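This section describes the prediction task in plain terms. A model, or a person checking by hand, is given the sequence of a single protein chain and must write out its three-dimensional structure as a string of tokens. No templates, partner chains or ligands are provided. The sample shown here is typical of the held-out split.
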Amino acid sequence: MGRKIIKIAAVVVFCVLVIFTLAFTSREVKNVHCERIEVRYDGYQTISLSREEIIKSVNDSILQKSIRKINAEKIETEVEKINVVKNAEVTKNIVGKGIDFEGILSVTVTFREPVLRIISGNGNYFLDKDNVQIPVSSQYTANVLVATGKIDPEFAGSQLLDFVNFLENDDFLKAQIKQIHVLDNGELILTPLVGEHQIEFGTIERYRKKLKNLKAFYEQVIAQNNWNTYKTISVKYTNQVIGTKR
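The expected answer:
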């Protein structure tokens, strides 16, 4: 009987200690302040800003503020105002730090992926595949297709972007074409990465058919060690590929 009473008393004491510990821990966690801001990049990024720039947009004033009182959604909105940011996710974390607790604000950022750089009298900027303009900055670079010449924003964001997105989905053409020049009459001149020729593309109409013909010419003729044989290759005429030798 005495042993039973001792066991019951031990269980009661243990439960009291657990309840006291949980109450103490809850009070301690409630008072935890944000001590660090962590910035993470989601996946491979063509362009990105430094972690310092992201933290600047978060606002250093949240440091030492109660982690529970920080508005994560508001911070996400502020970070997403940055032109190069496509999405931001903010989480509030409380972790153990010795016998104490530490508040950490984690900001996970996904950047926009530019596919084209426009350099014209109407502007100098990047475009992503969703037709969102990204300003040029010394803080980042992007190795993407360049378009020069007479380019207005409407043409760039519709017909030219469709053309570039099509190139992006073809590994061969994506690797081969490095620059597009738009002439005053609206015709395109393409500059390849390999070879010393230029491609007279004509207008952008029927571009899928023209690119198909161009690719076939490369595979059947140019690839046979003829990379520097031609001065120009023209696909501007219907169902014709005309190569002018040097």
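For orientation: The longest strand covers residues 85-97.
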